[in-house]
Amino acid sequence: MAKERVDPNHHEGKKTGYELIDGVYHIAPLYTKQFDDLALQRNGVDEMLCSVTSHASKALEVIARRQKQLFEDVMDDIGIDQTTVWGYQNGTLRKKAQASNEAEKE
User: Fold this and answer.
1) Comparing C-alpha atoms, which of 105, 65, 74 is closest to residue 84?
2) Domain count of the chain?
């Protein structure tokens, strides 16, 4: 009877076989498929987040431009100082508190 050739790199785990070559474990397809599936799911989530972030960023740019134009229209209409920073709240425009840049000027 011929002796079966034994692969010195092949080992058996509790459930599956694996190969150990130069300190690198080559695991069973059972596990590699699961890792690949999880990576695919993670990539899908990453792509979705990038898409949502991009869409939100573009929407916020449009909102900021429209709000700036609205402030300019209102200030022009009622004749208030357009060099002052105004804030809107509940139907009112109020001067916004200025940061203390006075100390930096001195």
Assistant:
1) 74
2) 1
Output the pTM of the full model. Answer: 0.59
Distances, alpha carbon 73 to alpha carbons 38, 77, 86, in Å: 52, 6, 13
Is 94 contained in some domain? no
Residue 105 in domain: no
Q: What is the DSSP string of 2-63?
A: PPPPPPTTEEE-SSSEEEEETTEEE--HHHHHHHHHHHHHHHHHHHHHHHHHHHHHHHHHHH
Q: What is the pLDDT of residues 42-54, one digit of tens each?
A: 999 999 999 999 9
In a domain, 8, yes or no: no
- Domain-embedded: residue 65: yes
Non-local (6+) Cβ contacts of 81 within 8 A are 75
